[in-house]
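User: structure tokens for this one?
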Amino acid sequence: MKVKHRIPLLRSSFWRMAASQGKLATHGQVGDGREAAAVRYVLDNAREGDIRSVLDTIDRFAYTESFLINVGDEKGKLLDAAVRHANPKLALELGTYCGYGALRIAAAAPTARVYSVEMAESNAVNSRRIWEHAGVADRITCVVGTIGDGGKTLDALATEHGFSAGSLDFIFLDHDKHAYLPDLQSIASRGWLHKGTIVVADNVRIPGAPEYRAYMREQQGRTWQTVEHKTHGEYGTVVPDLVLESEYLGE
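Assistant:
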């Protein structure tokens, strides 16, 4: 794949995104239409029913058109490997955005049911269109809500989607970095984890999830076994980042 830049700091779309953190936090989108443009780009350029073609097309858009806050291709390989290690029947993602992370999970675990929790209905609509084009809309479900909404979304996962004791094999955290730890603890309090559940957390260095990282370090060898993967920020080779891969050891 030929790309224009692997240094996001050289791209105007990166700086427009950086200036729109408030909109991202409240509306889940940058505000310049790039997310809808990414959907159109996929529908126009990716082979229908081909997950790999859709993923590659999203990556190409993020490199050559507008920067996206997906996990991206480099860190995506770490996500793929962790999913294959977990070999999940049931996987949960927090933070859908354009549907890229859930799509990678579905590709790496072709028999898994994948649920993705997203606060913004507009992102849910975009993601469903991409998943349908990729041919996996029957295996990925977007649940609009947040884990920190007082239990409403957790209750929906239990009553409407069958989440139950020990059923959750894999979790991908890629939403509000400050919510990583409380949301994981809320999920664990439901009893859905089991010994061997794998949790992957993106952007632990940039923008950063220091409370989550400190917790995993404190719990190392006790309730969690964590590997810190040194990598780079999405769609670049300069800005350092960390992806944490943690295996639940049980209480």
